[in-house]
């Protein structure tokens, strides 16, 4: 059961400025982690201080108006309110990223594991952003917006296979992983963790396709042929129907 922690609950400083110029109905939620090494706190009593330290770094080191993230989630299933709903973030590394996507940061580093309690907290944060923050169903990793290792291999794999989606997902035979909420189109090339998931599934189905996480002309050609074969709208775009058919349509 996730516990939400208010800004006063973790001792946040006041922000110096904030903007409500955000349109998450066009994107959704981008997932982050803190960075390299091991940073997860064993004792939950230490987590609020960690969040305060991140805020100090963002405000005093980077000169930002506030902590950059919308929410921060610790390994103990607590969700700390950063900028909160309906507020533009500074975390996603690009104008379009900060315009259309909230930012949820896991309080782990590359050497830390991803316990179930953390996954629960991330799902709760995303669920809240959909329910009260107008977020669309998309879930991306920071690296989908800018060149970075964030949010690390484990979490980024979970972005791709639907594990972070509060609506379920997870996949398995005959049980399609939840549609990631991101349309694969070309051009330009669509890069997203879930592109590899779809390419891998199409390869399993016997299509000749490279599993490289990049949806370009070759992937689009496979998509078009698959859509024609299954009587789907042949638009070369992997949306919910084409995604689900990859798992559920007869071979
Ligand atoms: Zn990040
Ligand atoms: Zn904690």
Note the main attributes of this structure:
alpha/beta, elongated, Muramoyl-pentapeptide Carboxypeptidase, domain 1, 8 helices, 14% strand, 251 residues, two-stranded antiparallel sheet, 8 strands, 2 domains, binds zinc ion, six-stranded mixed sheet, Lysozyme-like
Q: Please, could you describe this protein's structure?
A:
This protein has 251 residues and is α/β, with parallel strands linked by helices. The chain folds into two domains: 3-161, Lysozyme-like, CATH 3.40.80.10; 190-248, Muramoyl-pentapeptide Carboxypeptidase, domain 1. Helix content is 34%, strand content 14%. The protein contains eight helices and eight strands. The protein has helices spanning 7-10, 47-61, 95-100, 116-132, 153-161, 193-204, 217-230, 240-248; strands at residues 3-5, 28-35, 71-73, 78-81, 101-109, 138-141, 190-191, 214-215. It has a six-stranded mixed sheet with strand order 1-4-3-5-2-6. It has a two-stranded antiparallel ribbon with strand order 7-8. Helix 5 (153-161) crosses helix 6. The termini are far apart. The model has no long low-confidence stretch (mean pLDDT 93). The protein binds zinc ion (2 copies). Residues 41, 44, 47, 74, 76, 78 line the site of one zinc ion. Belongs to the N-acetylmuramoyl-L-alanine amidase 2 family. This is Peptidoglycan binding domain-containing protein. InterPro entries: Amidase/PGRP_sf (IPR036505), Amidase_domain (IPR002502), Peptidoglycan-bd-like (IPR002477), PGBD-like_sf (IPR036365), PGBDSf (IPR036366), PGRP (IPR015510), PGRP_domain_met/bac (IPR006619).
């Amino acid at each position: 059961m996730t516990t939400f922690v208010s800004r006063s609950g973790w001792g946040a400083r006041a922000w110096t400025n904030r903007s409500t110029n955000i349109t998450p109905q066009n994107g959704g939620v981008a997932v982050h982690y803190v960075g390299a090494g091991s940073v997860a706190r064993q004792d939950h009593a230490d987590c609020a201080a960690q969040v305060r330290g991140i805020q100090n770094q963002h405000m005093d080191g980077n000169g930002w108006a506030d902590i950059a993230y919308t929410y921060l989630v610790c390994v103990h299933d607590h969700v700390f309110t950063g900028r909160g709903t309906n507020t533009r973030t500074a975390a996603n590394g690009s104008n379009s990223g900060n315009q259309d996507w909230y930012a949820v940061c896991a309080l782990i580093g590359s050497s830390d594991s991803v316990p179930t309690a953390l996954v629960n907290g991330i799902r709760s944060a995303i669920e809240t952003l959909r329910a009260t923050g107008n977020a669309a169903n998309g879930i991306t990793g920071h690296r989908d917006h800018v060149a970075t290792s964030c949010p690390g291999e484990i979490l980024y794999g979970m972005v791709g296979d639907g594990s972070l989606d509060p609506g379920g997902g997870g996949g398995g035979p005959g049980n399609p992983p939840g549609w990631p909420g991101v349309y694969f189109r070309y051009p330009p090339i669509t890069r997203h963790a879930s592109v590899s998931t779809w390419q891998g599934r199409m390869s399993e189905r016997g299509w000749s396709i490279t599993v490289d996480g990049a949806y370009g002309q070759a992937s689009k050609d496979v998509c078009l042929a698959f859509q024609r074969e299954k009587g789907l709208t042949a638009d070369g775009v992997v949306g919910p129907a084409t995604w689900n058919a990859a798992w559920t349509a007869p071979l």
